[in-house]
Amino acid sequence: MTDHTNDAQSTVLVIGGGVGGIKAAMDLSEARKDVLLVDKAAAIGGLMTQLDRTFPTNNCDLCTISPHLSAGAREQHIELMPLTEVTALAGDAGDFTVTLTSAPRYIDLDKCTACGECHKQYPECVRFYPGLDHRAPTCMRYPQATPQAFSIDMAACKDVDALVKVCPAGAIVVDDQEKEVTRRVSSIILAVGAELFDPGKLDHFGHGRYPNVVTGLEYERIMSASGPTLGNLVRPSDGQAPKRVAWIQCAGSRGINREDVSYCSSVCCMYALKEAIVTKERFQDDIETTIFFMDMRTFGKDYEAYYQRAKEQYNIRMVRCRPHSIVPDPGGQEMRISYATDEVSGMTTENFDMVVLSTGFRPAAHTVQLAETLGIALNTHQFVQSNHFEPVVTSRPGIYVCGVSEGPKDIPETMVQASAAACMAARHTDKALHDVEENDEYPPERDVFGEAPRIGVFVCDCGQNIGGAMDVEALVQESAKYPHVVHAEMAGHGCGQEALARMRRMIEEKKLNRVVVGACSPRTHEGLFQENLRKAGLNKYLLEIANIRDQNAWVHGGARELATAKGKKLIRMAVGAVAQAGPLREHTLPMNKDVLVLGGGVAGMNSALSLGDQGYKVFLAERTGRLGGLAAVIRRNLEGDDVRVYVAQLVERVQAHDNIEVITNAIVVDHSGMPGKFQTGFQIGPRMYYRQIEHGATVLATGALAHRPNQYLLGRHKAVMTQLDLDDLIEAQPDRIKDWECMVMIQCVGSRTAENPNCSRICCQTAIKNALRLTDLNPEMRVFVLYRDMRTYGFSEDAYIEARRRGVIFVRYEAEKTPQVTADGDRVTVQFDDPILGRPMEVSADCLGLSTGLIADDETTEDLAAIFHLNRTEDGHFLEDHVKLKPLDMSVPGFFVAGTAHSPRSIAESIAQAQGVAGRIQGLLSQDVINLGAVVARVDRDKCATCLVCVRACPYNVPFINEDRYSEIDPAKCHGCGTCAAECPAKAIQLSCFEDAPIMAKLEGLLERIA
Amino acid sequence: MERFEPVIVAFCCHYCAYTAADMAGTMRLDYPANVKIVRVPCSGKVDPIHMMKALELGADGVLVAGCLEGDCHFKTGNVRAARRVAYVQQQLEEIGIEPERLAMVTMSAGMGTRFASIANEFTEQIRKLGPNPVAAVRKGQAAAEPVAQVN
Asked: Which of 3.30.200, 1.10.357, 3.40.50, 3.30.420 would CATH assign to domain A455-582?
């Protein structure tokens, strides 16, 4: 590990090494801030490493996170301290002194190779942190653990000398001691997550007593390729394949009984759906899946579509009820669930082979302790208290919070908060210290010019991901026969640290000068393997990846022979291509550090302020004539804060800020360039004068529209209004409202329909907010809320409980049978079916409030997507680069998205994204030069006939005829599309990385000798 | 009779079709293994020589897959690619090879389903056309070679 200066002004302490902590640490390190990452566990990774797959893409978790884990240890600005806790804190923001206590590991991290000998011989005293009790995997915590090393439980060890002898690396340190150090840090990020509820405390579900009752996480482990059953789904009691599996939602959450918590854990509906879908994917009609739920809370971006897919495509049975109990069936191994539904009177019982309890988050006892040590406030649920308008700020200046320790949330929301916390924490560090030259950590590049190709082929099995679909060993044997291949081997999890180290060793030992990796998509992993080649002293362009996972294993999962044959071809093609590859040099340009923020709403203004405060020049362009966006018309949030006052303060700060230039009435008309060197043209003001802005990064904060669908007499009857209208009316004319006797609200108006399939996320909270304010004004008012699923996720469940306590009546309706609304003079009559009474009801209301939610500003996002070449979702929101791990980055480098342009969300959630975007951008702009990569067109002057075809073909007008009368292409300006190379009649132009020779070699590899 | 399994080369733009193909994998959509992907930075990089070479080497079908019209990452690469495909189709017709063996398709990065359905449809289309006549000739040549040596 590199030497870290222990300088108070430059280091941020990140407590907790789950995805949130890692993300915060990585963002800070990208911005060249030093990070001290401590985790009380022996390896970082947190909860996510124990999951099998993640929704909504059903990607393998470890595949997505493991490059980040190894990067977490790799980054030269990150110092990792496992087995470490914070035991004392003194000082103030900008100069804290923190005491860290590290438990002895009894293993020298520099020597341990994670060979596993110690664990094989003395399993009782070697810790591997399985995270699960009675079904522990017999491996390390997960295959790609970081640090890649075991740890010893000395107390459990009976024969220390024998244990020491077992280690071939001599890594066991018998006299290792608990260590205490003090460090000075400038700011702190708390990312300690939470624990999962232990349902053994609920006696009616029998968890811990009956082996076939498992938690969601235990089910993940059973399904996971790195889990205790190596991914074979078996009933724990007898190892038989289950035929019927049930999920019970809200186990220990949303309850009022002993051991229950009142809040909603926000993620369990999605993970239960995911587990059921993955189960169905693997076993199709051989297995029945049933989910018992109260409200299906699929409120995230595109999550509703996932729910619909679960029902329609996968035939997952949904039963709306809270089951009474689980008891073993006297006849055998099955479990019997007793439940009552609206449709059937009396109890129903049903047998299942396995029951999965969807348990939610609980704050860990040590978090409460830690909060005391740090001197920060907790909320009533013992999660870290944050501010609604500053969602990652704790009660103590200089300490920030992200992820589940702040409240239940899923991975993308955690990532957003992590980037936001990184942005906020970086403010306390001293910039000047970071102009130090970075020392080059790579060895010099080996000159391979003139050497005959010596190709090494490494084929990943990726757990079961690749190995489960094809014969990896056959691929390796076959590739050893290909021309120029001097070495071929299985690489296991090729992206894991150990496999990468082995690849580097092989490159050296076998004197390889070209590498082929049979792995997942180069889109996600090319960078990682390229870096590994560079570390091994090879030019990074001497690599070719054969995409045998995303484009083979995942496509032909059910046809092993076919997948194996195709895998061989794909590797053959890659071998042919890499034999033709040569070393390339990358080009650089100076970085423009100004930022363009599009959209002057809450998200845009917060991004601008966060960036402006850090010294970046910001252009804040707003399409309309005023700042404030949609939030400017909102009066109160659920917590009761005055939103108008907040927005007015924001506008004032933005307008007074030295680093922010506000441009109103600005419409984007053209765009060109690359990250660090963009040019965007605007037409500004009523005169539409043209202005071009040069900038290094772009924030999309263009917001969404308040939906006003033509339904339920909206716009045609004055008693019918949206929740947004009602919000205003409550503040503006409370006297008028006081006299209302009856209010009806209808949820999901214009959302979760065929035209707009997604959930608007905010409407349930908004309806409850308004219902509470109405009953504040007139406690006698009868308020009906007609809903489909109440989605008051997280702590907003408390408000839902409060509304019910006050007598607000919640009546569910089905999508197929919407309420009927008719005008009745000044009033409206609402007819609906009451599912509990099982009969139609009719209510005469003074006012009908429609929860219409938000829809994408389709016209704006379409225009911008066309100008900037951005991706959009089907419903017109901007589509981020990676829904889990890069929720703020667009796939076009240098573009970031915040606020409702991403998806419907609350003000607090928009602010977190806005600050998160600023955190991402500080990383991008911390570099002084732009790396242009090596994909540029080159002209062979001897072949050039000066025909001007390239000059005319180039979309960017880069080629020109130089003084020597041949075409010249400036590598700094070339975008690397290759159009000129394809058009050049003399074949005088080649595009680096995609020359004709490797493309032809691929074709030959695929089509060699048909006969 | 054994079903004819054509060999199909798909030149896929990194920014759209290649990503869509990855997406199809993520969604576990099944499409024929006949389709083999060659990644290019832009469909505008696909040279008529690449298309012809693939057919000459015995591919039964060639797909050029770029971004939706107006969405090209490099402004106009897909338009140029479409023009070139039309040109090569004309050439194919002249030399007596079915122009339907070559096709230009467009999609966005998010269209995993579209990628899979195009792969299915195109494979079916080529299957109906039967083997590439060039491949048959090459096969004949390969079989004739030893005889030629004797002479």
From this structure: 3.40.50
Which of B30, B41, B80 faces A935 most closely, judged by CB atoms?
Answer: B41
- Residue-wise pLDDT for A614-632, tens only, equals 999 999 999 999 999 999 9
CB contact at 8 A, B6 and B61: yes
ipTM above 0.85, yes or no: yes
Nearest C-alpha neighbor of A995 from the set B41, B43, B112, B57: B41
pLDDT at A168 over 90: no
Q: Which residue has tokens 């039964």?
A: B60
- CB of B107 within 8 Å of any CB in chain A? no
Using one digit for the tens of pLDDT, what is the confidence trace for A765-777?
Answer: 999 999 999 999 9
- Measured CA to CA in angstroms, residue A701 lies from A677, A861, A903 at distances of 20, 10, 11
Contacts of A1004 in chain B (CB under 8 A): 57
Say if A551 is an interface residue toward chain B (CB within 8 Å). yes
Domain spans in chain A, listed from the N-terminal domain onward: 1-101+180-194+363-441, 104-177, 195-362, 455-582, 595-654+664-703+857-924, 706-855, 936-991
For the domain made up of A706-855, the CATH class stated in words is alpha beta
Would you say residue A845 has pLDDT above 70?
Answer: yes
CB B60 within 8 Å of CB B131: yes
Residue A135 has pLDDT above 70, yes or no: no
Supply the DSSP string of A100-141, one letter for each residue: EEE---SB-TTT-----HHHHH-GGGEE---S-STT--SSSS
Nearest CB to B41 within list A569, A976, A996: A976
DSSP code of residue B72: -
Cβ-nearest to B28 among A281, A522, A993: A281
Selected residue of B4, B27, B35, B45 to mutate for chain A interface (largest A Cβ count, 10 A): B45
**For the domain A1-101+180-194+363-441, what is the CATH code?**
3.50.50.60
**Model pTM?**
0.78
Kindly determine whether residue B30 and residue A953, on different chains, have CB atoms separated by under 8 Å. Answer: no
CATH number of A595-654+664-703+857-924: 3.50.50.60
Q: Where are the alpha helices (DSSP H) in A594-666?
A: 602-613, 643-656
* Domain covering A104-177 in this structure, CATH number: 3.30.70.20
Which tens digit of pLDDT belongs to each residue from A286-333? 999 999 999 999 999 999 999 999 999 999 999 999 999 999 999 888
From B29, B70, B139, residue closest to A1010, measured CB to CB: B139
Q: Does domain A195-362 have CATH number 3.20.20.450?
A: no
Q: For domain B8-150, give the CATH number.
A: 3.40.50
Q: A893 at the B interface (CB within 8 A)?
A: no
Report the residue of chain B nearest A1006, measured CA to CA.
B36
Pick among 3.30.70.20, 1.10.10.350, 3.40.50.2300, 3.20.20.210: CATH of A936-991: 3.30.70.20
Q: How far apart are the first and last CA of chain A?
A: 55
Question: Of chain A residues 896-955, which have a CB less than 8 A from chain B?
Answer: 935, 953, 955
Using a CB-CB distance cutoff of 8 angstroms, which residues of chain B are in contact with residue A58? 26-28
CB contact under 8 A, A955 and B76: yes
Q: Is the Cβ of B26 closer than 8 Å to some Cβ of chain A?
A: yes
**Distance in angstroms (rounded) separating the CA atoms of residues B151 and B148:** 5
CA distance A530 to A584: 12
For B7-39, the pLDDT digits (tens) are 999 999 998 899 889 888 877 889 999 999 999
